Amino acid sequence: MGLIKKPVTGMKDVLPLEMEVREYVIGVIKETYHAFGFSTIETPSVEHIENLSSKQGGENEKLIFKILKRGEKLNLNEASCEKDLVDCGLRYDLTLPLVRYYSNNSSKISTPFKALQIGSVWRADNPQKGRYRQFYQCDIDILGEPSNLAEIELILATTTTLSKLGFSGFEIRINDRRILKAMAAYSGFEEENYDQVFIALDKMDKIKAEGVEAELLENGFSKEMVSKYLNLFQEISDAENGLAFLVETLGEYLEDAVSSELKEIIDSVSQTKTADFQMVFDPSLVRGMSYYTGTIFEIAIPAFHASCGGGGRYDKMVGKFTGTDVPACGFSIGFERIIMLLMEQGFQIPKKKQKVAFLIEKGIAKEEICKIITEAQKERESGVQVSLMRMNKNKKFQIEQLEKEGYTVFKKFFREALK
């Protein structure tokens, strides 16, 4: 069997021009988040399988790339179940590794802890536009802050970053898991069925209310409950103030402080923002991870008809490791989708260094080569990016390829000219 030159399905090679954009975007992200007081951390790509499959990652737990035990620990002949074969896996997001990191190092770090983490994650998903099996995530999280100051800071930091990358006119959609639960309870659903209801609701933007209704009915829920539930969303869309309508309608099903906390976040961000975006209350917003306990939010960019990032509050997750709950909230930028949008727009890096190619004909003497290298060194010291390379026979094609990589100046050195 011959070697395969294409990457594994769902993973991709990154060409130089895109890599430059990726590195620039990471630079902007880090600079902006550091200005908001976040500290960069790093966690391993591999996590214990017990952590990854702890029923906190929602549907992503079905997409884990699992790793076989190694050496003497792997005994295929005596294995009777998956636990005998697997002891770890590739992380499917950065939140669970962060919580393990915090639980292991809390005595060494300040509270509240404001963490910035950028790195690859892996999901055995069906690849499609903007969705890969290996992709970068970029998360900021605040652990140890119980108030909604955490949500406000996370939203302002993320939207400031998007603005610096040239995005405007987008939306931050916001909701609260407690509102979702109150709406489900009001409609007659039992608590053990909430996740099933929310999985269907999460598809509302794709399959519309009719599709959600059909899925819930197929799952065995009564027509009366489903109609009462979906009528809430219809009535909210007709109401001028959806949040106030829900407070009045849900009554005792909704905790008193939820609406005021959510309104405070919306008002505070709207009054202090520096970027061009809108805060929008969206009662159909679910977010896929089951570890969310309160506020949830998502980035909606008009140019891309899908989420370009999101996050929320997960106050119960640290307690799974330590036995003591710690308030926590995070926001993740959809890094790969942001890069895709920038590349499709022909994004140009501001104040990008000039790229110069020195094309040297074969056969030039060593002494002349040294003079060319010295000239290149002087240009590099002045801030120019210079690449030395041998001149190909097909110079036109060579230059065309270099232009695709961002080279704009070409200096050619021929034997005759140097004699």
Helix content: 40-55%
Number of helices: 15
Q: Separation of termini?
A: 52 Å
Helix/strand/pairing category: alpha/beta
Total strand count, please? 14
Q: How would you describe this structure to a colleague?
A:
The chain has helices spanning 16-35, 49-52, 95-105, 149-164, 177-187, 194-201, 204-218, 223-238, 242-250, 256-272, 317-322, 335-344, 366-381, 395-404, 415-418; strands spanning 39-40, 46-48, 66-68, 86-90, 113-122, 134-143, 170-176, 277-281, 295-300, 307-313, 328-333, 355-360, 385-390, 409-413. It is globular and about 90 Å long. The two termini are 52 Å apart. β9 and β10 form a beta hairpin. It contains 15 helices and 14 strands. α6 (194-201) packs antiparallel against α7 and α8 (223-238) packs antiparallel against α9 (242-250). The strands form three sheets. Strands 1-5-6-11-10-9-7-8 form an eight-stranded mixed β-sheet, sandwiched between helices. It has a three-stranded antiparallel β-sheet with strand order 2-4-3. By secondary structure, it is α/β, with parallel strands linked by helices.
Features of this protein?
419 residues, alpha/beta, eight-stranded mixed β-sheet, three-stranded antiparallel β-sheet, 41% helix, globular
Describe the structure concisely:
The chain has 419 residues and is of the alpha/beta class.
How is this fold's topology laid out?
Layout: H1 16-35, E1 39-40, E2 46-48, H2 49-52, E3 66-68, E4 86-90, H3 95-105, E5 113-122, E6 134-143, H4 149-164, E7 170-176, H5 177-187, H6 194-201, H7 204-218, H8 223-238, H9 242-250, H10 256-272, E8 277-281, E9 295-300, E10 307-313, H11 317-322, E11 328-333, H12 335-344, E12 355-360, H13 366-381, E13 385-390, H14 395-404, E14 409-413, H15 415-418
Parallel strand pairs: 1-5, 7-8, 12-13, 12-14
Antiparallel strand pairs: 2-4, 3-4, 5-6, 6-11, 7-9, 9-10, 10-11
